[in-house]
Amino acid sequence: MQGKKQYQEKLFINFQLSDRVPEDNFYRRLKETVDFSYLYKRTAEYYGSEGQKSIDPVVFMKLMLVGYLENLNSDRRIISHSKMRMDILYFLGYDLDEELPWHSTLSRTRQLYGQEVFAGVFKSVLKQCIDKGMISGRRQAIDGVYVKANASLDNMVEREVLADADIYSSELEANKDDALVANMPDGHFRDSNGLRPKKNPHNDTHYNPSDPDAKMSVKRGKAMALNYLGEVSVDTSSHMITHIQAFTADNGDNKCLPAVLEKVIENLEENGLTVEEVVADKGFSGGEALRALKENNITGYIPNRPQFVYERPGFVYHGDGDYYTCPNNKQLTYRGTYKCENSFNKHYRCERKDCNACPLRGACMIFTEKKGAYITDTIDRPYYASMHVRMQSKKAKWLLKKRQSTVEPVIGTLVNYLGMKRVNTKGLTQANKCLTMAAVAYNIKKLLRHNSIILSANVQALRKQAKIALNGVLNSLRHLKSQQMLSNTVYLLSSSK
């Protein structure tokens, strides 16, 4: 007979949320694994002794974490999603009939807390991972990723160059709304009069009033957008994130590396670990970055940029006199150091009369009619040269492949599954908080997975021990049974006689 379910809503008299959340549920295990109670002491300085009670700091941080674990890029969606999940309510410490905080409270509290609060959560989870032996710290793979800003290219306005910086700042604040209204919605990069600029806009000429820290940048194969640059450091032995930091997108990876190194070293040294090697792609190659590696006694494996020339056939550098000799044995002497883009280059030039009389002039690889024979070399040549030699080894080639299989999948997970595709805040400081919480969510998932593996291994070990013990008991019983049968046989034989 066909069944038909009849539904009539009931008023539950006896109901416990903990009874409805399975023991192996992710949020139940998270609640038992990570203790957030230290946040009360860490956030006490942000509150006074009077007025209405704010959102519980632990509840706030758990809601932030839920947003990244569930890939929810909106405070409103975090609240609406959490209302419908019993396991999340249990994790937050709320009953079914309790109202969750208003979504705007999350935004205000995020702005209230400093970056050190979010960094403290990251370090707390990182310490748990290190204590469980999940991180070696010896070798780190570092890479960068563009994270979309919460701002649009349609609202870009032209900067006005003012002599007084104070007046410039005040006028920017006063004209934000006017600039947005004046900006025409049917096209990009219009000025306050609604006209297109004569030259192509860039970060020096245009900005977005709602988020001045968001910068125009483009990745190969992608459209130009307003982004932040996120730098991620990953431990190669376990794929755990040891540091993450946001920068403005007009920075290069090589400019960010010294600051990232400082934080990675700090995070690991607090737990007794030492960084010995760093692996990165050629985007991190630069004089400042290579100097930072040397100063921190870290061995880097970073391919040099194509602009660096390791050797010029026939031209020999003499370090004692700081000059080059050409194939015709003429000297190219030092003529000065000049700034070139973001670095300083040393210029070496041969006497023009020597070049004019040189029989090899037609085949000279550095001769030009305008300047004669000259060489431009970076002041950081020793660092580049040392890196060039190191990158020829088999270990370096293996490490570059290791980097691709380590840090790039981690970044892909952060962007596609842990809410780091786009920040839902304004400003560099707030963007840093978003990236930090995405990294916390990633490490927590790895931590719980590690605990599950250990638990499974322990269960298997207990089963094996129980099986061995059971086999021992069965063998003892068989032995006793055989002894009993032997006794019975002897008795029967003796009786028959």
**Arithmetic mean of pLDDT:** 83
- The rough form would be described as flat
What structural class do you assign from the helix and strand content?
alpha+beta
State the distance separating the first and last CA atoms.
74 Å
The count of domains is 4
| Low-pLDDT ranges | 162-166, 176-198
CATH superfamily of the largest domain: Ribonuclease H-like superfamily/Ribonuclease H
CATH architecture of the largest domain: 2-Layer Sandwich
Q: Would you give the CATH topology of the largest domain?
A: Nucleotidyltransferase, domain 5
Task: Return Rg in Å.
Answer: 33 Å
Main β sheet profile: 6 strands, mixed
Helix coverage percent: 40-55%
**In total, how many beta strands?**
14
- Content of β-strand: 15-25%
Count of discrete alpha- or pi-helical segments spanning 4 or more residues: 17
| CATH top level assignment of the largest domain | Alpha Beta
In short:
With 497 residues, the protein is an alpha+beta fold.
Structure, described:
With 497 residues, the chain is of the alpha+beta class. The protein folds into four domains: 97 residues, no CATH class; 139 residues, Ribonuclease H-like superfamily/Ribonuclease H (Nucleotidyltransferase, domain 5, 2-Layer Sandwich), CATH 3.30.420; 57 residues, no CATH class; 66 residues, no CATH class. Helix content is 44%, strand content 15%. It is built from 17 helices and 14 strands. The strands form three sheets. Strands 1, 4, 5, 6, 7 and 8 form a six-stranded mixed β-sheet that branches. It has a six-stranded antiparallel β-sheet with strand order 9-10-11-12-14-13. A hairpin with a 7-residue loop joins strand 4 and strand 5. Helix 2 runs parallel beside helix 6, helix 4 crosses helix 17 and helix 8 packs parallel to helix 17. The N and C termini lie far apart (74 Å). About 6% of the residues have low confidence.
